[in-house]
Amino acid sequence: MLTDVTVAPEPTLITVVQTGTVMSGRFQGATAVRTFVYASLQHGACDTEEGLSSLSATQTLVWS
Question: Helix, strand, coil shares of the chain as percentages rounded to 5?
Answer without folding.
Answer: 10, 55, 40
